[in-house]
Design a protein that fits this description.
heterodimer; A: mainly beta; seven-stranded mixed β-sheet; four-stranded antiparallel β-sheet; 11 strands; globular; B: mainly beta; six-stranded mixed β-sheet; 0% helix; 50% strand
Chain lengths: 113, 113
């Protein structure tokens, strides 16, 4: 079972470069999420999509944009990367927005120099 | 706002030792409480949950009891194995929608043979 698949696994960017993190789930889940994980800070929600066609800001949305391309795919874009965006990024999905069991991808480790 | 506080790690134990990882929370309503586990190189996985006071969540030998009077949800296991080495996250949700899931900072557990 693939579950939640994230690409790439590792990425190094220079300040000001742009990139898109890709996420796809094969569980027919309606809701998808992007989190960042920083040392000593736990996981923080960047953006979420409660259902196909909707997106909303989470706790730390500044500097990011998202696209819910279809029910399976939810991408996260950094338009102009900054060193403060160095982090591990996790995509997750749930069956519905009120279903609290998250399924996570294995993460993308991003370094911005 | 709602918050979760976990004990600092790493917690270092020998195989078959008893494990306790402390978690306390602050919430205005009646949250659901969760423990997630992150094995090396993987995303988080739901370990157990409890949705109301005095509920006990359990899975894979791990247990945690929802204590409203002490606002705690401590994780315990009677006999740890090397394979339990991971990072453990306590989290809460106010139950009105997943986007309000709040994670603690995580506690790393290292178990030696």
């Amino acid at each position: 079972n693939a579950g939640v698949t994230q690409t790439p696994k590792f990425q190094v960017l220079k300040t000001g470069q742009s990139m898109t993190l890709q996420c796809a789930q094969d569980m027919n889940h309606n809701s998808m999420y992007w989190y960042r994980q920083d040392p000593g800070m736990g996981l923080r929600l960047i953006y979420y999509s409660a259902s196909e066609g909707t997106t909303d800001k989470g706790e730390v949305p500044n500097g990011y944009n998202v696209s819910r391309l279809n029910k399976r795919e939810f991408s996260l874009r950094l338009e102009s990367a900054a060193p403060s965006q160095t982090s591990v990024y996790f995509c997750a999905s749930t069956r519905t927005a009120t279903n609290e069991k998250l399924f996570f991808g294995s993460g993308t480790q991003l370094s911005v120099l | 706002g709602d918050s979760v506080t976990q004990m600092e790690g790493p917690v270092t134990l020998s195989e078959e030792a008893f494990l306790t990882i402390n978690c306390t929370y602050t919430a205005t309503g009646y949250p659901s409480l969760f423990w997630y586990v992150q094995y090396p190189g993987e995303g988080l996985q739901l370990l157990l949950k409890a949705t109301k006071a005095d509920d006990k969540g359990s899975n894979k030998g791990f247990e945690a009891t929802y204590r409203k009077e002490t606002t705690s949800f401590h994780l315990e296991k009677g006999s740890v194995q090397v394979s339990d080495s991971a990072v453990y996250f306590c989290a809460l949700s106010d139950g009105t929608g997943f986007q309000k899931l709040v994670f603690g900072t995580g506690t790393r557990l290292l178990v030696s043979p």
